[in-house]
Amino acid sequence: MKKTLMIIVALLLFVLPLSAYSVNALNNSNARQVKHEQSSKLIIRNQKIWQKHTAKADVIHSDEFNNRTAVVSTSFEQLQNHSQTVIEGTVYNLQKMSSPEEMSYTKATIFVNRVISGDKSLKNKQIYLAFDGGLVSFDRWYSHSTRPKDSDREMLVKNDEFPLPKIGSKIIVGLIPNHLDEPTEYNAALKQSGFTINNSYAIENPRYNVWVKAPNAAKYQLNNPKMRKKTNIQQTQDLQKLTQLINRQYNKK
User: Fold this and answer.
1) What angle do CA 104, 126, 115 make, to 5 degrees?
2) Where is the signal peptide (predicted)?
């Protein structure tokens, strides 16, 4: 009888921890599922709001990168070296923000899914980035023009080398600090839009080193459509190889 009792006690000591582990695993799984569903609903809601704001705006095209120079990263080592942090994130929201005269930017809310290199504390945090292009008032865009003023008219500026990633897209991008202490019109616009040194970053090279995986897309692609078409240029070929590497290493389900 004593031997049987000892066997039962031993079995209980073995089974109970397993049961607790199973319950905890189930609870964690359910929590992740709830969080995923909440995120999906938020993304869908934000998509509808952004679509409503942009639907009636006058569309114009811009090449705002023409006067900017930046070092292009054509290898992953270069991307890491030129950036403070490299992340994979989800575009949770796009919003109109303050912009300098005759320029346009969009406030992008990014949830950091993974820190590929750099500041690991950013994982699972929300940050703000200023995307090129977006909604701006007619008066702001044509501030130095002699055209009649129309403050109620909205313009949707599309940068031909930086199409705005859709809400819900995944992005891989290098980040550098925003130096908001410098007295520039751009920094003033960022501050007016809620950007601080603690919650925001600048994109290391928005023209050439941003990769986007649109909702329901199978792979990441270079965000610059013009560069994707210039297949006879060595720089583009190197960027295509880097894109393939990114998909092999970071496009895992």
Assistant:
1) 105
2) 1-20
Q: Where are the alpha helices (DSSP H) in 55-133?
A: 76-82
Per the CB < 8 A criterion, the answer to whether 109 and 78 are in contact is no
Classified as helix, coil or strand, 58 is: strand
**Alpha helices of 59-198 — where are they, by DSSP H?**
76-82, 138-141, 185-192
Each residue of 214-237: pLDDT tens digit?
A: 999 999 999 999 888 876 688 888
**Spatial CA neighbour of 201 closest among 134, 135, 125:** 125
Which tokens sit at 139? 């008066």
Q: How far is CA 22 from each of CA 15, 19, 35, 86, rounded to the nearest angstrom? A: 10, 5, 20, 35
Other beta carbons within 10 angstroms of residue 246's beta carbon come to: 21
- Cα gap 168→58, rounded to integer Å: 24
> For residue range 184-217, what is the model confidence (pLDDT) as tens digits?
999 999 999 999 999 999 999 999 999 999 999 9
* Residues whose CB falls within 8 Å of the CB of residue 22, separated by 6 or more in sequence, listed in order: none
Residue 180 sits at φ, ψ, to 5 deg, of -75, -5
Residue type, 253: K
- pLDDT, residue 39, reads 82
- How many C-beta atoms surround the C-beta of residue 159 within 10 A? 21
